[in-house]
């Protein structure tokens, strides 16, 4: 952890000085408004001091940045129990188990909720202080870098040959050959046969893109390379180029193999590697179908239901200066939107030719 404030806050938290952590961090909220770790440490500190209202607010801010982080979900679920909202807590713990099936805290919490089904019994259990066992942990303090590297140097000096042998074995076992990255599951399934390489393009037909034989192979390898590096957004873009082009059906089918693996993972605000601009998507929406974007702006035409939220995003208009365009956003979850504040949306592009909308994955509003 390189950030001095977060390091200091974490050291104070480790000593149980949660009030000092809150005083230190709340004065810096504006500067750290996009920091997941900042909100997480602050939320845990509020939780430990019994300030459950602020704890919930900060956990939600962390959740808006990383909506599948298990520890944040554990914090929110514990607060649901404190609020006597057992049904919401159960839903949250089931979501955690869906992400991490062997999560001990979530399994223990569900056992507690089953055992103390009555509200009075559960209230007594909570008031006994045992609920603290369900609280998520603080992040670990980083190693002392100076001591670590001195120890590493000594180890390498006296164990160089053994270290080299073990490293070589690990490299071979992970499929790292000649400096390449470990092969991602599904990568070998997309290798083109000699027949597929010899028949790269179709003749006749109507296509959005016309590629040469060399361009087909180059685009396909770009898709595979980015896929293997887990740069799924760019990989999906290249795959779309192939699917809307005159490349052969054999290559298109191999490209679709990669999509199955890409669809199994979903980015959040912190992990999206390649973002695309509104103008890029507007010009050729079909090439970005299935890709993810992070756009900011203002909202209008908000429609809320119990389990969904829809609105129009005025892209780029967060400072009331430049309106790049308007896109419809639909979220399969409820979210209270403040129309007086700017908003950031992580969404998946749903395209029909050059008409498109966003499936909202996560929303962040300060």
Ordered list of secondary-structure elements with their pairings:
Layout: H1 4-14, H2 18-26, H3 36-49, H4 52-65, H5 70-82, H6 86-99, H7 104-115, H8 119-127, H9 145-173, H10 194-198, H11 213-228, H12 232-243, H13 249-262, H14 278-283, E1 292-305, E2 308-315, E3 325-331, E4 343-352, E5 355-364
Parallel strand pairs: 3-5
Antiparallel strand pairs: 1-2, 1-4, 2-3, 4-5
Helix pairs in contact: 1-2, 1-3, 2-3, 3-4, 4-5, 5-6, 6-7, 11-12, 11-13, 12-13
Primary descriptors:
366 residues; alpha+beta; Serine Threonine Protein Phosphatase 5, Tetratricopeptide repeat; OB fold (Dihydrolipoamide Acetyltransferase, E2P); 3 domains; five-stranded mixed β-barrel; 14 helices; 5 strands; 49% helix
């Amino acid at each position: 952890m390189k950030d001095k404030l977060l390091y200091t806050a974490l050291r104070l938290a480790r000593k149980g000085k949660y009030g000092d952590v809150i005083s230190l961090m709340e004065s810096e909220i504006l500067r750290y408004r996009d920091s997941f770790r900042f909100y997480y440490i602050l939320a845990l500190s509020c939780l430990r001091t019994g300030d459950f209202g602020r704890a919930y607010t900060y956990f939600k801010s962390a959740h808006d940045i990383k909506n599948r982080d298990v520890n944040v979900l554990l914090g929110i679920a514990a607060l649901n129990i404190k609020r006597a909202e057992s049904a919401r807590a159960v839903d949250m713990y089931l979501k955690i188990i869906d992400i991490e099936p062997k999560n001990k805290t979530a399994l223990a919490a569900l056992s507690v909720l089953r055992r103390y089904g009555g509200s009075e019994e559960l209230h007594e259990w909570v008031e006994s202080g045992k609920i603290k066992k369900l609280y998520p942990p603080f992040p670990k303090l980083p190693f002392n870098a100076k001591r670590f590297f001195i120890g590493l140097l000594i180890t390498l000096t006296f164990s160089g040959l053994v270290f080299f042998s073990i490293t070589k074995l690990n490299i071979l076992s992970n499929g790292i050959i000649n400096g390449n990255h470990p092969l991602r599951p599904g990568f070998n399934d997309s290798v083109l046969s000699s027949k597929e390489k010899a028949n790269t393009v179709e003749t006749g037909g109507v296509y959005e893109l016309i590629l040469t034989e060399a361009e087909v192979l180059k685009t396909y390898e770009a898709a595979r390379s980015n896929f293997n590096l887990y740069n799924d957004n760019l990989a999906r873009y290249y795959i779309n180029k192939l699917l809307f082009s005159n490349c052969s059906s054999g290559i298109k089918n191999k490209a679709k193999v990669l999509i199955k693996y890409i669809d199994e993972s979903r980015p959040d605000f912190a992990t999206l590697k390649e973002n695309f601009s509104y103008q890029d998507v507007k010009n050729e929406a079909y090439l970005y179908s299935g890709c993810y974007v992070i756009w900011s702006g203002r909202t209008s035409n908000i429609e809320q239901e119990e389990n969904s939220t829809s609105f129009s995003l005025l892209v780029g208009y967060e400072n009331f200066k430049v309106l790049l365009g308007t896109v419809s956003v639909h979220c399969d979850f409820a979210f209270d939107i403040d129309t007086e504040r700017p908003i950031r949306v992580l969404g998946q592009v749903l395209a029909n030719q050059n008409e498109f909308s966003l499936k909202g994955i996560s929303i962040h509003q300060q």
